[in-house]
């Protein structure tokens, strides 16, 4: 028997005969070219400069113009622009974000729709994407695993405009069959794909402005395929609530300053805030002068969440002195973990607008606080409440 006969038995398929294409497709790392439809939601100005000033265009005309500008989209899907979310300007309100979330869920309930792409200015894109990620109802999540992709353009003028490339990459991501290896809601810009729960705009004018400090992108849109290097993040699974009809809670973000005496805390409580997000230094520590005002807020039933101004890293008790996170915990404050102050505000607004959450807080305050802390930082919740 020759050497080749010894190493190749009838039970072993030679390497060159393996069905490598099927193997790759099974892993979900390649775009599957099928007749798919992607729903496009235009939030704020249109993503391409030659359409930005043409607010009178119909949805069909926007779709046609985009396909003429970026014909490659047709290689991946049919594009369907949704009507009700066009408005002039850059920054949607939380109420608009809630309406957007409901409409996205409705669009994805259509079996012919493979995914959703949302375009908006970069100003508040991380907040919009995050809010949609936490407001997906349990019922929706149990029956849907289709991608929801936000995108934008950092350069509004030609010839440097990056909107076309970002839109094409986002459409490809929305068509991607990730088989569970993609967070439900992502932001795709500069060929990088970031989980909505961690993404931040970290530069005012840079094509690579989108980042996830401390985490990095979960995937990439390369020339030949969309692929992912990290699994779905746990924070992108929603909060076990139905999507509320409206957002009823009132919240404020207060940025701590050296020498702060708590004046803004007192003003927010007097104005009727249901919760406060205090953005502290480093680990989340606060000036000692703020503590009397925070104590008063807590006694009046106002929830206080401590976040950090740092771009990455957790809020955590690491010292014991006036204004420390340790003192804040002892008083009954919650910690935002790695959630930014802006996202913590939306999270608390969403939770406090839920009737079930209000009922839980009334019947079992500690269990309610444990639940909220778990939404903010699951690891810390285990330590504090179990």
Question: How does this model look, in words?
Answer:
By secondary structure, this protein is α/β, with parallel strands linked by helices. The chain is elongated. The chain starts with a helix and ends with a helix. It is built from 15 helices and 14 strands. The protein has an 8-stranded mixed sheet with strand order 2-1-3-4-5-6-9-10, sandwiched between helices.
Short description:
Helix content is 35%, strand content 16%. It is of the alpha/beta class.
Tell me the layout of helices and strands:
Blueprint: H1 3-7, H2 20-27, E1 36-42, H3 49-52, H4 59-69, E2 77-82, H5 94-108, E3 113-119, H6 125-134, H7 138-143, E4 148-151, H8 163-175, E5 185-189, E6 192-195, E7 200-201, E8 210-211, E9 219-221, E10 226-228, E11 251-255, H9 263-270, E12 275-280, H10 291-299, E13 303-308, H11 325-331, E14 334-335, H12 341-352, H13 355-363, H14 365-376, H15 378-385
Parallel strand pairs: 1-2, 1-3, 3-4, 4-5, 11-12, 12-13, 13-14
Antiparallel strand pairs: 5-6, 6-9, 7-8, 9-10
Largest sheet report: 8 strands, mixed
Average residue-wise pLDDT: 85
Summarize the helix and strand pattern as letters: HHEHHEHEHHEHEEEEEEEHEHEHEHHHH
The total of helices stands at 15
Structural class per helix/strand content? alpha/beta
Distance between the termini: 66 Å
- Give me the Rg, rounded: 24 Å
Number of strands: 14
Strand order of the largest sheet: 2-1-3-4-5-6-9-10
Relative strand content: 15-25%
Low-pLDDT runs of 5+ residues are 1-33
Helical fraction equals: 25-40%
Shape: elongated
